[in-house]
Amino acid sequence: MAAVDLMDLVNQRIEDIDDEDEDLETDAAYFIGEHGPWGFIVITSDGEPIGFEFIESGDSWRRPEAMDEYNAAASLDLEVLVIVPDEAFAMATEMIYGSGNPSITISNYHAMELTPRPLAS
Question: I need a labelling partner for 55 at 20 to 30 A (CA). Which of 47, 80, 86, 109 fits?
Answer without folding.
Answer: 47
